[in-house]
Amino acid sequence: MNIQFANLQAQYQSYKSEVDSAIQHVLDSAHFIMGPEVGDLERALSEFTGAHAITCANGTDALMIALTAIGVGSGDEVITTPFTFIATAEMIALIGARPVFVDISESDFNIDVSKIEDAITSKTKAIIPVSLYGQPSDMDSINKIAAYHGIKVIEDAAQSFGATYKGKRSCNLSELATTSFFPAKPLGCYGDGGAIFTQSGELAEKIKSLRNHGQIKRYYHKYIGVNSRLDTIQAAILNVKLKYFEEEIKARQIIADRYTSLLKDKVKTPTVLPERTSVWAQYTIRVKDRDAVQKKLQEKGIPTAVHYPRPLHLQEAFAFCGGKQGDFPVSESLAFEVMSIPMSAYLTQEEQTYICKHIC
Ligand SMILES: *Cc1c(COP(=O)(O)O)cnc(C)c1O
Predict the structure, then answer these.
(1) Helix 201-210 × helix 59-69 angle, to 10°
(2) 83 lies in which domain range?
(3) Which atom of ligand 1 has the smallest separation from the CA of 281?
(4) pTM for the model
(5) 78, 156, 252, 353 — which has fewest CB within 10 A?
(6) Which of ligand 1's atoms lies nearest the C-alpha of 87?
(7) How many angstroms separate the Cα of 60 from the Cα of each of 45, 179, 288?
């Protein structure tokens, strides 16, 4: 067997005629920048999540724009975890602030809420909880801590678009949130894409302006902003894919449950905590002898990936933060053990059985 890790080809084939005609429509209209499909998508994203939605060029820019919108900058501190994709902490540093890491919890691989308060100082401006692998953090507790200390919360929902917490959608669980439409994310486009979400109408207006050169009217600029618009073609693709997204989420959840029942006696399988759902951006297990397991699976035509092999406090780019081995033991031990296995709405039962047979 030759199994695909995310099977984007199968996904395209199933929506091909609609996607092709949506792209063709943009080509014919030649409305490549901020065409009507962008506004249509923002309305649909807003309806889906319940928050204001502003699209942008990618999930990394989305973080940078969200931080800029609340005025984070030089001398400020922003709390996040070291067990995430680099973009989360990278954007904090890029805008001149300092990432302050807090370890994750073993139960959901998300920020350990009980350790947040110890990291708050007079310089803390925001907390960025990451909804890792598709499952939101305990957002009510995080919002409560943030409100008490007068700081903002930005959910990095790059992996969790479509997930829920207490019946509410990820991206509408705090004042601000960001997501990514990178092809392999739960809702992906066919290139780069992203969005910022906010519960505040005032911030929504500012963010809309920031992602387009701080413009409020053509050639009238209120803020120093960036060019981070979502291409019309990508918006057109997402408008098609969003219609089928709930079905894809259900399929992913069924596949994840089946993985868990087939693997739970062999390896440590992931858990979804009460009152939450995951969209399973990754199905990530823990194994002791990871290199050997990966190699064996590779030989059987089963691709795997490691999210993430080195926590951010031990990355060269963050040496200026002074992190050292032993600072965040949970992140460090997981970095040695985690392994993601193929996950997509198109994974067949036969493929799944084959994968599970070879994991031991
Ligand atoms: C993918 C990802 C991002 C960045 O998104 P891009 O669209 O690739 O820029 C940020 N944070 C997390 C947690 C991610 O997984």
Answers:
(1) 120
(2) 8-243
(3) 15
(4) 0.98
(5) 353
(6) 10
(7) 18, 9, 32
